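ping. complex inputs:
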Amino acid sequence: MSSKRHSILPPAPSGPKPPVHFSSSITIADSAVLTGTHSIAIHGESVVHPRARLDSLAGRITVGRRCVVHERATLGAVGVSGRVAESGAAVTLADYVTVEVGAAVEAGDTVIGEGTVVGVGAKVGAGAVIGKHCTLTPHTEIAAGEVLPDYTVVYSNGMRRTDKRGMAELKNKGLARQIDVLRRIIPSNPGKFA
Amino acid sequence: MAVLTPYTFIQCPCSDSSTLGRPSDPNSSTITEADEDERTFDPRAPRSNFSLYPLEYLLYCEDCHQIRCPRCVSEEIVTYYCPNCLFEVPSSNLKSEGNRCTRSCFQCPICIGPLAVTSIETRPDPSLLAAPDNTAAPHSGPYALTCSYCNWSSTEIGIQFEKPNSIHAQLAKLRNGGSTRLTAKERKERRKDPAYRRYQATSSGEGESDQTENLDLETQFANLKAFYQNQLADPNSADTGLAALGDLGFSSPTSLSRIMSIYTGGSLQDRKAKSRLGAMREALKPDEGLQFAHLDESAAIETLRGEGHDGTASITQLVDQPPNLGEEHLHGRSRFISELRPIPYLLRTKRSKRCPVCRHIISKPEAKVQTTRFRIRLVAGSYIPSIAIRPLSLSATAGGGGSSASGATLPGALLEPLKPAHFLLTFKNPIFETIKVTLGAPAETPGRFASKVTVLCPVFEVDANTDVWDEALREGGATGGAGSGGGGEKGERRRGRYDEGSQANNGNQLEVGKIWERGRNWVSIVVEVVPASLRLDQGDAPLREDEDVLEIPLFVHVEWEGEAGGDDVLESVAAKDKGGEAREKRELAYWCVLGLGRIRK
Amino acid sequence: MSSRRAPRGEYIETETGNKVARKATLLGTQNIMLGGKTVIQPEVLIRGDLIRTIQASTQSGAASNNTAVSIGRYCFLSRGCCLRPPGRLYKGAFTFMPLRMGDHVFVGPGSVVQAASIGSHVHIGTNVVVGEFAIIKDYVRILDGTVVPPNMVIPSFSIVAGQPARLIGEVPEGGHEAFELRGLYKTVGNNPQPAS
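pong. complex structure:
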């Protein structure tokens, strides 16, 4: 019964099929949506959950090593500013980046630094540059073009503070363990997007 | 502007000075009612703010037959518990330990989120940890409190713990920065220790150096208390001429012992108090409780230079901070974020409520923390009719629903000034008797902008809230139409109206004195309003906040026949055998306020 | 396998009275337990595929229990909400843990729920985020836009709001009936009835 319903569900990804550069060790769910004209590169051991959306219409999308893009997260949508990539890179995720459920990273030279967590439903505006090991708590909005220093925590509707725990290494290790599990339980189908 | 959904607020009679303090028996209430008819209740009067409640917030006293609100009931605490670990705290602990959780439940001083105990060294991922037991070596320390929302950690203020449990006790011994402090008990023991006394004796001889010792609040109070207690106990203390001034002087032992007894619970007011003593000297050493105020703020200014405004604590953060007896007196100095401490959770309570007049309990939860049942729960909603408001748009579909649960047809639509608008009021009867409702509304709303109000059908009856199954049986044809006027018939009528509702509401049904629609235990009537124009003339005060909301006061008078003296019999039981017993006429009258919507400016 | 089946009605109604929208996404359906009479609106996403990969050492016998999301009776999952089991490191390895939900739980549109447990008679508003391993007891109201931080415990009769969530009020005695979702259940499905 479930298989039947799934066959109905994902309406064929609208738009053009982008050229992809996948590492052989990635996990990408069948129902993830990849669309656009520029290339989408996903590096080693990264995980793309079902129903995540990567849109390269505005420029190149690069996902680093050991990143996790959760369901309903959007990478590369064109924001209200309408800004598109000037250098050709719409969205760049460094290594160990987590983009949580329903978060949106807009296109336009947007960079997310290593080990950063983009919380549930958070929005990163076009051209924003997020430093390393930052935490954007759920529903945080980062304005277009904003630059966030390393270890910044954005919480409670835009309050800022610096993460002084010194946990970056351990956090990355934890993420690696999470990826170990996700690779086992999410059926990967990179062939579909090739 | 926020969308305004129509609302009904009910006025609790407690705010009415004429009914205060005496039970309203039927006879007297008719008199006050007559008075009330004279003056219209003004929902915008400053006092009204404190007496208007949504129906859910109101209770009902079965003995006084009156509405009771959260403001007039008297509360009694049944259970204290921690909202985080959900453990019950015996009330005896409250006196000794205070009103906060003394286990390991803390809130973040930065963002108020919950703090979790996490192991510092072997912890692989703090943001994903829920409990300290998830490391390969479970008993590795040290531990810290971390916030999983804003990533604050107690290591930021230099605090870490040796054990993952009883954090509260560990924290009480730690100052920010990690240095330990003595607890009250240890301090007492230290004072007895001869080695410490010798040290004290030598250091006090050196004079100044010792006086800079930082006394925390608790120690300072203990020292002062001991010092004055000694003076009181010492009959040979210097008897100066000030004693002649009597007991009023600041330095008089009697007034002091009186003050001290207020703060310490009477232990000082004993044998010596009566023997009049002379003036006492003040504390001169830290050991006696002397603490110099640190008026030199250069260090604070220096920190402010370094950390800036972001480094200081906000007012909310300061307010959330529990009083910390472990630090010295701040003397009004503001604090930095780096000085904030984890906040032990404030305990919550389960409370029972009593009627203020007859002292009967009208709400009583079960004492156990985890249960949600109530032993007694007399809510107004099961005694007085609920009033639901729905805009009645004569062009759009009217819908047939009885309550407004499905939402307004045009949510948040603004009311056009000077254009008649219609609203459906649905009265739902919760009791097992037929009620007669009489409505009274002023022709014009009070306030600066007087809107015209017409209740098209001010007198009507609402059928009893019979059991749903009774109605189902009747609809099945077994006992059709015999009891309270044919429920099945009504059901059909209602359905019929629902069907035609979409096409036939062409205004000709808006007849004065006619019920718009009725169902098993509900009746809908129409209210016509002509919203006032909000135009301001020259020199008028500007529009105040929410002055554009059209609120109409409505006086509701409910009459029904109830069991005579059936105080302890549930009405559901009483409804089953209707005949036989003596019937008594009951009535209830109250003001309510209908918020209909905003008027277009 | 034809995709031209839509005219049969927006919802699939099961024997136990569940109404599941055809446009809802249920991943790992074998790991999702529905108690009956539960409404799942279109565009809802339930991650039943995120199963527990490490069983608790105490219950070695019950290893076959793979339920990732269990939902009681008369729950209402509004359009666009997302339920997903919370995950954490347990004894050095990562695992997801089941998400349990009682009866009469309303989850508002666009909300994301990663709680460990939600009691009965709980109202979660619009665009709420319930963080991982939060525990929500019975009769709790979470207002629109609230962010419930991970690990938070919300005791019964609380009204919470804010980012992060804090207690802002108590559910009054007369407000218990408002959590009842039987009426709402009837208003959706292939043969919706008007609210009564």
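Chain C touches chain A at residues 1, 3, 5, 22-23, 25-30, 45, 47, 49-51, 53, 82, 84, 87, 89, 92-96, 110, 112, 127, 129, 131, 145, 147, 162-164 (CB under 8 Å).
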